[in-house]
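lol forgot to send this yesterday, sorry. struct tokens for the thing we talked abt
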């Protein structure tokens, strides 16, 4: 069997350069769609925008939009994942400034609770209304999007356990329970179960989660 002749180095370099340039152009176009959607949500205070509005704002074509997204749902999913990833980075950076592992974990829980509360700004719209829609119809997509936050919480729980300030357990599973508790408490903000309109505070959420994590 005759081996295929090896391509000249110049040809490989040319192809690699062309592929790299095409990838950069695609990333720029996608980012323009994302930025346009962010702007529309910020202006409207809601995720109720149309694909055509995004296309017009981005000054790109409808055909180009559908090269990268199946529709509005996939665009919102990209925004949701992007928002959660940025929040995870912010929480990790803020928590790293605390030398006390328990203070770091508390900061992470309280930051997450504050960010997940309902509101008109873009992150809160995506954390709240869209996240709830996803949870009902596409739970696997929610799990994927939450992975960066789950990882941060698991790391902080493990760090606290290693320092001996909480009992050792199953950090990943504990993080999942904390994440679900915090997100639900934030979305129920202002709708107290006992009928009194006294919103649950971030400190209350932290104390509740700490009791669950430490087993006390």
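and heres what i got for the seq, position by position
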């Amino acid at each position: 069997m005759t081996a295929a002749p090896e391509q000249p180095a110049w040809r490989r370099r040319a192809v690699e350069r062309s592929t790299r340039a095409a990838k950069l152009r695609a990333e720029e176009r996608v980012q323009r769609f994302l930025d346009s959607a962010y702007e529309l949500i910020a202006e409207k205070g809601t995720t109720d925008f149309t694909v055509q509005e995004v296309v017009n704002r981005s000054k790109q074509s409808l055909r180009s939009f559908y090269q990268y997204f199946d529709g509005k749902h996939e665009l919102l999913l990209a925004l949701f994942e992007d928002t959660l990833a940025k929040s995870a980075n912010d929480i990790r950076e803020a928590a790293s400034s605390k030398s006390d592992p328990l203070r770091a974990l508390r900061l992470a829980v309280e930051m997450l609770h504050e960010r997940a509360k309902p509101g008109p700004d873009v992150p809160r719209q995506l954390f709240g209304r869209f996240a709830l829609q996803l949870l009902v119809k596409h739970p696997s997509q929610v799990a994927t999007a939450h992975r960066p936050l789950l990882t941060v919480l698991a790391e902080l729980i493990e760090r606290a356990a290693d320092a001996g300030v909480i009992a050792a357990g199953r950090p990943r599973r504990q993080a999942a329970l904390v994440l679900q508790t915090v997100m639900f408490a934030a979305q129920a903000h202002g709708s107290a179960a006992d009928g009194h309109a006294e919103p649950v505070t971030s400190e209350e959420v932290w104390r509740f989660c700490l009791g669950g994590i430490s087993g006390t």
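The chain has nine helices and no strands. anyway ping me if u want another try
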